[in-house]
Amino acid sequence: MMGFIAVPVALPTIAAEFGVGLTTIQWVVTAFLVVSAATMLPLGAAGDILGRLKILMAGFALLIAGLAAVAVAPGIPGLVFARVLQGLGASMLMVSGPAIATSALPEGERGRALGIVNLGGFLATGLGPILGGFLTQHMGWQWIFYMNIPPAVIGLVLALQLRGVVPNGTRRRFDYKGAVLLAVALSAIVVGIGHGQEEKWEAAHTAEHILPMALLALVSLGLFIYVEKKAAQPLLPLGLFKNRTFATTNICNGILHMAMLNVSILIPFYLQGVLGIPAARMGLLYAPMSLTLGLMAIPSGWLYDRFGSKKLCSGAMAAGMLVLFSYMSLDPGSGYGGVLPRMIGAGVTLGLFVTPNVSAIFGSAPREYLGVASGTEQTTRQFGHAMGAVVSAAISGRYMAGADTIGSQTFMPAFYETAFVSALLMGAGVFLALLRQEKTLFKRA
User: How many helices (H) and strands (E) does the chain have?
Assistant: First the structure.
């Protein structure tokens, strides 16, 4: 988690070293997100069947391999491949960890338990950019990845100690057809849009490459729905979405993470390219957001256990909408004083939203489908992140086409439009959050 959060801080440095532009370098982020989004639901279901601990241990092993692969990456293609391995390993960790924690505790303690689980990720949100900025400036951007190898090794060793403690999976057939179709559909959507924006949606290129990807995504998604309705033991029981809480919490999850990443992926370029802040000092600006997230992680879980998620999540998204609108008032002279309160506001938004929303997703699914619930939560989160990266690149590409360097005249209009679009998305999420019902019954499709 720390490595993923730290990577955006290093993007300007990596882009300069390899001599590529903003739209190309963002594939270092997008590759990780595409793989994660495409595999989380199948891996969540595999954990329910094979055992969540097995998926957890395999995830640590793949993550270690992907982190080490950065050492031999000769260019952007090699770096993107390493990020693919990291994305697959991280996907395994992110679906199995919350499901293991949820299955081990009674319903009344779910919020606090997931708050503790999320606390580690929240701390990484702040520590990652700080360490990433320092390492990028003083030791080289590669150390952002290397620094995660020892914690991953420790995690694997600790996971091995849980053998015999975490229960094995349940006996049911794995839906291979559904897994492949869903992975193809999600990948085609993100890759198609990303490839289109990288080529500025040129007509001939769009007709030759993007339309086939769109067709592949539509056909795969249609076949996935057909297969799931017919399957005796589907990868994703579509009846879960008849539960209004399960449906709206997952949609809100994708919207919030898409809207926040739309802006956050451009912030390092604003800080370094417009304000001229060096990488090491730039990372320090993320510390207040991390502190806010950490302080709110467990209390927000306790509030969910007491009050539910509707008011908490709708309020968080309303706060996030205001924060995103406020980015439109930044300018080349804003400095630390302009950025700092907005980073704290982002921390408040995420801290209030994540634990209650995740708890509501798990609370609206049967216990035998906790891995699937974890998979859908992480899939919508990562798909939102992937679309956020693509949308921010598409907007910035329109304003910065042909620009050799990032300057305020070309960058700030792109930044403002990205913030505006993200705020509108967050506003739609407020209304969706108010539609959820905390106690609805699950019915199988």
Answer: 19, 0
Interacting residues of 106 by C-beta distance below 8 A, sequence separation 6+: none
Cα–chain center distance at 23: 19
Token pair for 57: 């241990």
Closest CA to 296 of 110, 105, 116: 116
Under a CB-based contact definition with an 8 Å cutoff, are residues 329 and 303 in contact?
A: no
Q: Are 415 and 224 in contact (CB under 8 A)?
A: no
CA distances from 13 to 286, 348, 352 (A): 18, 29, 33
Which residue has tokens 């260019």? 75
Q: Domain ranges in the chain?
A: 2-174+235-433
**pLDDT tens, position by position, 126-154:** 566 667 777 777 787 788 888 888 888 98
Token pair listed for 396: 């910035």
Please tell me what DSSP assigns to residue 107.
Answer: G
Please tell me the distance from the alpha carbon of residue 135 to that of residue 307, in angstroms, as a whole number.
Answer: 42
Distances (CA, A) of 71 to 28, 82, 126, 355, 429: 15, 9, 25, 35, 41
Crossing angle (nearest 10°) for helices 244-264 and 335-363: 160
Find the length of the chain: 445
Helices marked H in 364-407: 370-400
Residue 393 has phi, psi (to 5 degrees) of: -70, -35
Tokens of 4: 């993923």
pTM of the model: 0.70
Is residue 372 within 8 Å of 237, Cβ to Cβ? yes
**Is the Cα torsion angle 147, 148, 150, 151 positive or negative in sign?**
positive
CATH class of the domain comprising 2-174+235-433:
mainly alpha
* Paired tokens of 178: 């559904």
Q: Report which DSSP code applies to 201.
A: T
Distances (CA, A) of 376 to 245, 292, 367, 381, 413: 13, 26, 14, 8, 35
Residue-wise pLDDT tens digits, 43-91: 877 877 777 788 888 899 998 998 888 767 777 888 888 888 888 888 8
Single-letter amino acid, residue 421 = V
**Count of beta carbons in the 10 Å neighbourhood of residue 294:** 20
